[in-house]
Write a structure and sequence with these properties.
Oligomer: heterodimer
Strand order of the largest sheet of chain B: 1-14-13-17-15-16
Strand content of chain A: 5-15%
Radius of gyration of chain A: 28 Å
CATH class of the largest domain in chain A: Alpha Beta
Radius of gyration of chain B: 22 Å
CATH architecture of the largest domain in chain A: 2-Layer Sandwich
Distance between the termini of chain A: 92 Å
Distance between the termini of chain B: 66 Å
Helix content of chain A: 25-40%
Largest interface: A-B, 25 and 24 residues
Largest sheet of chain A: 3 strands, antiparallel
Helix content of chain B: 25-40%
Chain lengths: 288, 447
């Protein structure tokens, strides 16, 4: 019985002395931290995507509080979040136009020709190292989804024809897909860039169209129909000068024979012109 | 006399050789295709710069592109004809790359009209290096590295031995086998050029012991009095990789990230040397090469002398393709490149064209099983890496770690690990992806 009491007393004493030491240490060794860092970090999306150029949201929050950057640099946050961050920190929001990743290819498996069948590691990067991946168009999307796998926000999905589709609402323009794609088909654009050429094939005319039903043939109709200087043909491709984006209109896409140039409608998605042909080719089963 | 053990290196594999179909067939000439496609980048280094324009007439052997730097070589017209266009053309990598397209005149002659004279004996080593660059010569074994760069010994380094690489360790290929039998004099003269350029005193011709006819023939011709000796090495893949061959013949190990010159050796493919001896005294350029065209999908397998730039389509019109042909590989089956188009031209580095049928391609299933840690890949890797562990890391995308801690860059993609893997894991493909991504991250970002 005594042993029980003694042991209990020793434990209680030990606990008391150690906890008082901790309490003391907490007082003496306390590091004052700006509480706004914590608050700012909690408002950030916790994606740690690195699009801001800082190693994670915590580092970005610290930079925010010290005034090195403005809240607008976080492309993953919504405009409301950026504004409330700015309000809390008492700085200018510096809201930037929403940017999204866009894919410069529409050559999904039912419209683009496959010259050879690739068997091997199911990754675009690996396939592109084996004879370019087997697609007839040397520039086109291989459809094995390296971009979807790389997207930290789940904004890219492959449709049933193995073409990546970007969910512009989820996309934060972090740029992971730009790096992941071995064909360099992704680029970051402001969401209000409505005119879009979904092709990178530098071949022209029938040669380009033989490989892909929706290839840009470099015919130049869009360049003639648009405001002068907005669209030009460079390397067999319609190329849009986005510094003149305010002049863009639906007129440019209407006569495109293949539907390679589209209008990215915020509600309806990509819209093709009236003269764009219906896609007819079915997927090839074997080597052609 | 006690039979000495044949020299070799540690580890490696021995795949079926498949050389019987073509090893006894003498080299035959192939005609000119209706269009020859000469890509400006057929070698490692900077692309060549075209010096002809569309519509210009060229004669066989005339330079049509100038080197784009020191690590670059010129291109020469493979046939007499007219430059149809300078345009993007499909290459073995699948990318479209600039090329000079030449339309040979109908019935144009095989005779090389663009020719001169040079006295190699009177040349200094520097002049030899320059003359080698003028021939447009690259390593004909497959890597296509400009030969003159290898012959130019850097300041402060010395070379004491030249190795003529006649191993031909890849299955199916027999070009070097035929060349050593048919052009031994060119080979010996080529070795003399390499000796003079590098300042080495001794030369060894390394030949795998599955070619006893070549070893005997060369030994008989040499008669033991030249500074050249023939040395058999064990038939094992990748015996023809230069670092493996140096290890086997001289027991020297090229340091990680180093070059053969760091251990005082220069390694050249036998075909490269023989071609040099053929071209240099006449100031000619490399316009054709021997290619083994074989495999179960080919009707008339053989060793053919093919004009550079000949599209595969024309070659198969000549040698015939079986109906069940499924896969076309440029180079050997272990390290070669599968091509996706018949418009791909033969370039300087193409040593073989192998056509496999459904039977061979189906032998390797598509399904990848998990690694069972059997260690066979570790036992096969000739550079003592741990492919199993690195494969795991590649799956988790830890590419940087593979390079920093596990010597990814020492892997020369011989594919031994992938060949032995019972789980069918595409290890070498993982490593190629990892290397490509690491390279991209290091390069300054541009478009």
């Amino acid at each position: 019985m005594t042993a029980l009491v003694v042991a209990g007393a020793i434990m209680a004493l030990l606990g008391l002395s150690l906890s008082s030491m901790l309490a003391l240490a907490n007082k003496k060794l306390y590091i004052a931290e700006d509480p706004r860092i914590e608050a700012a970090e909690n408002m950030l999306p916790h994606a740690n995507c690195g699009a801001c150029g800082f190693p994670g949201c915590r580092a970005f929050a610290e930079a925010l509080v010290t005034g090195v950057v403005t809240p607008g640099r976080c492309s993953a946050s919504s405009i409301e979040t950026v504004k409330s961050l700015a309000a809390m920190l008492g700085v200018e929001a510096d809201v930037r136009a929403k940017r999204v990743a866009r894919l410069a290819c529409a050559g999904s498996r039912h419209v683009a020709r496959r010259r050879a069948l690739y068997r091997g590691l199911q990754s675009c990067r690996a396939a592109s190292l084996v004879g370019g991946g087997g697609k007839g168009c040397a520039w086109g999307c291989l459809g094995l989804g390296d971009c979807a796998a790389s997207c930290p926000f789940g904004a890219i999905t492959l449709n049933k024809h193995h073409l990546p589709v970007v969910d512009e609402y989820k996309c934060t323009a972090c740029g992971e897909c730009v790096v992941a794609c071995p064909k360099k088909l992704f680029s970051l654009h402001e969401a209000d860039h409505r005119l879009w050429v979904a092709c990178k094939n530098q071949q022209v005319g029938k040669v380009a169209e033989a490989e892909c039903e929706v290839a840009c043939t470099g015919c130049g109709r869009c360049a003639r129909d648009a405001v002068e200087g907005l669209i030009s043909i460079v390397d067999g491709l319609a190329t849009i000068d986005y510094s003149k984006n305010d002049l863009a209109s639906l007129d440019a896409i209407q006569r495109c024979p293949t539907g390679a140039i589209v209008w990215m409608d915020p509600e309806k998605g990509p819209i093709k012109g009236q003269k764009a042909k219906q896609v007819v080719r079915v997927e090839l089963a074997g080597v052609s | 006399m006690i039979q000495r053990r044949v020299k070799t290196f540690g580890r490696g594999v021995h795949p079926p050789e498949h050389k019987d179909a073509t090893k006894d067939l003498a080299v035959k000439r192939l005609g000119f295709a209706p269009e020859l496609v000469v890509p400006l980048l057929q070698h490692l280094g900077a692309p060549a710069r075209p010096i002809v324009r569309k519509g210009q007439e060229v004669v066989r052997g005339e330079p049509i592109a100038a080197p784009g730097g020191f690590v670059s070589v010129p291109m020469h017209a493979p046939a007499t004809g007219v430059v149809a266009r300078i345009d993007k053309a499909v290459t073995a990598t699948g990318h479209m790359a600039p090329a000079i397209i030449i339309k040979p005149y109908p019935g144009s002659t095989q005779q090389i009209l663009y020719t001169g004279e040079a006295d190699i004996d009177a040349m200094t080593p520097e002049q030899i290096v320059a003359a080698v660059q003028d021939t447009g010569m690259v390593g004909l074994g497959g890597a296509a590295f400009p030969t003159h760069v290898k012959m130019a010994v850097p300041q402060g380094k010395t070379v004491d031995t030249v190795i003529a690489n006649g191993c031909e360790c890849e299955p199916y290929l027999t070009t070097d086998h035929r060349l050593m039998l048919e052009q031994h004099e060119n080979l010996f003269r080529g070795i003399a050029i390499a000796l003079k350029a590098t300042g080495a005193r001794e030369a060894i011709i390394g030949i795998e012991d599955n070619k006893p006819d070549v070893i005997d023939a060369l030994r008989a011709k040499l008669n033991g009095n030249a500074p050249i000796r023939v040395e058999p090495v064990k038939t094992k893949y990748p015996q023809g990789a230069e670092k493996m061959l140096i290890k086997a013949l001289l027991r020297r190990e090229v340091p990680s990230g180093g070059l053969p010159v760091d251990v005082h050796v220069g390694v050249f493919n036998v075909a490269t040397l023989a071609q040099l001896a053929e071209l240099m005294p006449r100031r000619r350029g490399l316009i054709e090469r021997i290619v083994t065209i074989t495999g179960p999908g080919v009707q008339k397998p053989g060793n053919y002398l093919v004009p550079l730039g000949t599209p595969l389509r024309y070659i198969f019109d000549q040698v015939g393709l079986n109906r069940d042909a499924r896969q076309i590989i440029l180079g050997g089956p272990m390290m070669g490149l599968s091509v996706a188009s018949l418009d791909v031209p033969v370039t300087k580095g193409v040593s073989g064209i192998i056509v496999l049928t459904e039977e061979e391609t189906a032998a390797r299933p598509n399904k990848i099983y998990p690694c069972i840690k059997c260690g066979q890949c570790v036992e096969a890797c000739p550079v003592s890496l741990n492919p199993s562990l690195m494969g795991d890391m590649a799956r988790r995308r830890e590419y940087k770690r593979m390079e920093d801690q596990y010597h990814l860059n020492d892997c020369f993609e011989c594919a031994c690990c992938t060949y032995v893997c019972p789980s069918n894991i595409p290890l070498v493909q993982y490593f190629r992806v990892a290397k490509a991504l690491n390279r991209e991250k290091k390069a300054p970002a541009n478009g």
